[in-house]
Amino acid sequence: MRTTACGGATVHVDPTLLPSRNLPVCKLELTLPLLEQPASLAAAVEQTMQSGAALFERDASPPFALALAGLEHCGYASLQRLADRLSESFAAYFPDSRVMVVVCDTDIAKALGQSLEKRLKERTKIVCIDQIKVEHGDYIDLGEPIAGIMIPVVVKTLAFHGREGDRR
Description:
The chain contains four helices and seven strands; from the N terminus they run E-E-H-H-E-H-E-H-E-E-E. By secondary structure, the protein is an alpha/beta fold. Helix 2 (about 40-55) packs parallel to helix 3 (about 75-95) and helix 3 (about 75-95) crosses helix 4. The protein is globular and about 50 Å long. The two termini are about 20 Å apart. The model has no long low-confidence stretch (mean pLDDT about 90).
């Protein structure tokens, strides 16, 4: 199954990094209480990066798209804590990757992308888009920017039919 959407107008992206095709998705479910507990946030981010490192090539640029879901509202301090944990963990698990892709389901991409870029400096370029809902195991294609601010995204969800008589 495929769906097409456009990332919101608050994206953070270097257009030279696009298009990018067939990026696998790892999803990190976030809540406001999780963001306010540094140890819990660090553990959740660590687990997601560890999963990504086990499944995908560590030196790929990017190795996968990190989907952030569940944040209805995110204040400045919470966003900075999130950027700290994401940048530290990504650098630790993917030291040779030069591109980090983050897909947000809410409107935080520009601020988060700028915060990540500040922390990862010149070593890693950031593609951060918002208003896209994806699930762990999906694949995404990121197209070239439209009007310089919107990114077309194709979400590909794999679906398998069971054999007749299988109970699942």
